[in-house]
Write a structure and sequence with these properties.
The chain is an alpha/beta fold. The chain contains 18 helices and 16 strands. Helix 5 runs parallel beside helix 6 and helix 11 packs across helix 16. The structure holds nicotinamide-adenine-dinucleotide.
Length: 507
């Protein structure tokens, strides 16, 4: 298999996927096509950014690479610094826009918006999302969905009531690399066999509290009006109870979401330890070191899933590792950590060989040449090494984004958050279904926010299946939430949750 063939296959897959989605979704497009304010084309989307901090900048950067996005407003309470900085960038790229300190004023005055991208601190997400949806706008809201279950529930309920789209910013859900791993390696070929354990982490160094330019603080009255006691707290909101959820929620949300996705299940219980091992407890309210064990009972059987956050050592960085009876898959947004290899005693060599030949797995050029004339039988022998020896090589999925690598033949050249924004915008245009709609975000919020409860309780906590259900499952759901009509067979079933309904899992 050469690079050209692999690329052609990928291009064709992407074309087929989007063509199918386009056909299915156009009739249910949530955007009113043909709007004609000055110069607006039918596919253009008028967007406001709410929260112009570190993440807001990354998202604007992504949007600037996407055709049809027109920034019309920027709202941020740090008028003289973050707001000004983003506004300048947008001006440079020709986006004529207004600036605001207060989002309600923005909603009152901007009558031409289609969507809002929210990247404010977690404790603002629920209120702002609800108000934006109520104002008739589609919303892309960053993770964590909310710092409270109640907040997350209100967001999902409001999306349901208003019929507007709400995408939660779990960007791995739209990452072609993650999609490939789930669709082809887990779901289609079941390459790993039964997944009995998961291991994941985000280890990193401690860093100094975030500061601010001393000549540019926000005045005290404004800080207090928006829920902050000081500049120090405003800048380091993640560490404060009531504002953020600490590093376990901030970072863990992304990766634990993948556990639920790949297992197609929510956990049954959680046990967790959280301590302040590194940071100054006077200035940090949430634990900096957290270790968690979830127990799942999915369709394939029991799985135990470990996850940790460490703040004093970055050993191994961040990844999710799926341990199956027939293979191991380590994946990460930091793509140089990715690797897939068989559990050679138990592997279904035929299946792995087929998967490799189909192009679902790839390998370095040098080893690829040795494999040209392989059969399934001698393919398995490649992996028969003594248990104490390192494996001779790893496989890789043939898809990746960002950071060129010699090991991966097909590279989608965009930052890893961009496909998730594209998915949101295409869902507004009626071309795609959302990859992380509110009810999936809600399930992840329930899964992750329970960790802090378990730390506090100091014992194992159970999840009731009902906890993950955000809507009344018997209620008929409006179709345009996803921009795509669901088939009758799916619509009329009784599902445990809507996220499950979308995945086709009957209760
Ligand atoms: N998906 C990801 O990988 C990812 C990565 C980083 C951050 N995030 C999320 O993005 C959000 C923002 O994080 P950040 O790192 O940019 O934080 P930040 O502190 O750098 O930026 C927050 C911005 O919001 C503004 N703000 C605060 N309260 C506001 C209000 N009431 N109205 C308007 N503006 C307000 C602040 O002035 C600041 O500019 C958080 O929810 C965070 O968890 C997600």
């Amino acid at each position: 298999m050469d690079d050209k063939n692999t690329k052609e296959r990928m291009d064709r897959r992407i074309f087929l996927r989007s063509a199918a989605a386009t056909g299915a979704g156009l009739a249910f497009s949530p955007i009113a096509f043909g709007q004609t304010d000055s110069g607006k084309k039918s596919d253009d989307i008028n967007v406001a950014l709410l929260g112009a901090g570190a993440r807001g900048r990354v998202l604007v950067n992504g949007c600037l690479k996407i055709t049809g996005v027109r920034f019309k407003a920027v709202c941020d309470i740090w008028e003289t610094f973050n707001q000004k900085r983003i506004s300048r960038i947008l001006g440079k790229y020709g986006h004529e826009h207004h600036t605001y300190v207060d989002y309600k004023e923005m909603l009152d005055k901007e009558k031409d918006l289609d969507a809002v991208i929210i990247a404010t601190p977690d404790f603002w997400h629920a209120k702002q999302t609800v108000d934006c949806l109520d104002a008739g706008l589609h919303v892309y809201c960053e993770t964590a969905m909310s710092n409270t279950i109640e907040g997350a529930r209100k967001m999902a309920m409001t999306a349901e009531r208003t019929g507007k789209l709400l995408q939660i910013g779990h960007q791995r859900r739209s990452n072609p690399f993650y999609i490939h791993c789930f669709e082809h390696l887990i779901k289609e070929t079941k390459l790993l066999g039964r997944i009995t354990a998961i291991n994941g982490q985000w280890n990193r160094w401690a860093h100094e509290p975030l500061g601010w330019p001393r000549h540019d603080p926000i005045d005290q009255a404004t800080l207090e009006k928006y829920g902050y006691t000081s500049m120090e707290q405003f800048r380091n909101w993640r560490w404060y109870k009531g504002l953020g959820g600490g590093p376990i929620v901030d970072l863990g949300s992304h990766q634990i979401d993948i556990y639920n996705w790949f297992l197609q299940a929510n956990p049954r219980s959680v046990i967790a330890s959280g301590r302040m091992n590194v940071y100054d407890p006077q200035k940090h309210e949430w634990p900096d070191t957290v270790m968690v064990v979830y127990e799942y009972e999915s369709a394939q059987g029991p799985t135990s899933a470990f996850y940790q956050i460490i703040s004093g050592n970055r050993d191994g960085g961040y990844f999710e590792k799926f341990l199956g009876e027939q293979g191991i898959m380590v994946i990460s947004e930091a793509s140089f950590r990715n690797a897939i290899h068989p559990e050679f005693i138990k592997m279904d060599a035929e299946n792995w060989f087929k998967c490799f030949k189909k192009g679902h797995l790839t390998i370095s050029e040098k080893i690829m040449q040795q494999m040209e004339n392989l059969t399934a039988a001698n393919f398995a022998k490649l992996f028969y090494v003594d248990e104490s020896m390192p494996l001779p090589f790893d496989f890789m999925p043939p898809v990746r984004i960002e950071r060129p690598s010699l090991r991966i033949p097909v590279k989608l050249d965009k930052p890893y958050h961009q496909p998730h924004l594209e998915n949101f915008l295409d869902a507004i245009r009626g071309k795609m279904k959302l990859n992380c709609p509110a009810e999936i975000g809600y399930e992840t919020a329930v899964t992750v926010l329970k960790i802090n409860e378990a730390v506090e309780a100091g014992r194992k906590l159970s999840f009731e299946p009902d906890e993950f259900v955000v809507y009344n499952p018997h209620k008929k759901r409006t179709e345009h939430i996803t921009g795509t009509k669901l088939p009758n067979s799916v619509r009329n079933c009784r599902y445990h949750s809507l996220a499950q309904r979308r995945r086709g899992l009957q209760f």
